[in-house]
Amino acid sequence: MTRRPSVPTAVRTAVSSLVRRALPAQRTRPFAVPRALAAAALASCLLAVGMPALANESAVGQVSLLIGVARVVHLDGRSEPLRRGATIQVGDRVETSANGHVHLRFIDNAAVSVRPDSVLE
Asked: What is the pLDDT of residue 58?
C-alpha cells in the first residue's frame, strides 16, 4: 500500500478556496417558480397596457391645453374642432384662430405650444 504525501493545511485551504470560487456550488432556488409566475404576470400586464397603443399606432400625441378656437385637419381632408384630450394622428394639421392657443403633448413626452393664428403640420 502506498502512502499519499500529506498536504500542508494552508495549501489545502487555499486550493479549496480557489475551487469554490471557480466552481460555485449548485444552490436550490426555492422562489424560482414564483419568480417565473411573477415575470409572466408582469409581461401580461405590460402587454395589456400596450394593446390600446397598438390599436392606434398612428397616434403621435394629444391636446393637453386648449384656449379659444382651434381645429385639426386630418390627412383625408376631414376637419373637426379640437378639444382637450383629442388625439393627434400622423399627418394631422393643427390650426389655431386669432384667439386660439393649443398645447400638444407627444408620445415621447415632448410638448409644443401652437400660438394664435398658427398652423402646425
From this structure: 86
